Amino acid sequence: MSVQPEAIVIGASAGAVEALSVVLTALPASFRLPVIVVVHVPPDRRSVMAELFQAKCVLPVQEAEDKQPIVGGTIYFAPPDYHLLIEVDRCLSLSSDEPVLFSRPSIDVLFESAADAYGPTMIAIVLTGANHDGAAGLRAVVDAGGRGLVQDPETAFAAAMPEAAIQMCPSARVMSLEAIAQYLKEV
User: Fold this and answer.
1) N or C: which end of the chain has fewer CB within 10 A?
2) Which of these is catalytic: 2, 13, 93, 97?
3) Catalytic site includes residue 133
């Protein structure tokens, strides 16, 4: 019997808006899990990700704030130039530690903290991107007993990130964006 998921983390980079538009807009108003998202965005200007997706999604969407309690049925985006972490007390935390793989926010940082906080009740998803961020984090989630999903590199705008995730975590399920959206609706 599989463990009931309690949270979802998603990482994306180049091609993120298009990929997330398929996955996040498919989630119904009744969706009960929190979704925490890191997208590589330029550090020197305001991100419009939360506003953009609030206009597209039926779920509430917001930019994450430090020490914010995680609420189910809400989509959180990492703010520019901060790592987004999940604390063991299920609150969000922002950090200005050094970039990881030239990225802050880092997908690996989010995923590794999520693995510590949620263990086997975590679903981690690596989408399109042009670097290797997310691969080590996905491995951490799967090693903690969580589920790993990866966008099929054949369908990704940039295949490097999903390919690295598959290489580091061969047990992850490789799926199209539509299949990922359907999978989440059924958890």
Assistant:
1) N
2) 13
3) yes
Q: Is 2 inside any structural domain?
A: no
Choosing from 40, 47, 83, 113, which is the catalytic residue?
40
Query: What residues contact residue 162 under an 8 Å CB cut-off, 6+ apart?
Result: 126, 127, 128, 129, 150, 151, 152, 153, 156, 174
- Structural contact between residues 145 and 113, judged by C-beta atoms closer than 8 angstroms: no
Q: Is residue 170 part of a domain?
A: yes
Total domains in the fold of the chain: 1
pLDDT (0 to 100) of residue 62: 97
Encode pLDDT of 31-66 as tens digits: 999 999 999 988 888 889 999 999 999 999 999 999
CATH of residue 92? 3.40.50.180
Structural domain for 111, as ranges: 7-186
* Per-residue pLDDT tens over the stretch 74-120: 999 999 999 999 999 999 999 999 999 889 999 999 999 999 999 99
Residue 31 domain-assigned?
Answer: yes
Give the total residue count for the chain. Answer: 187
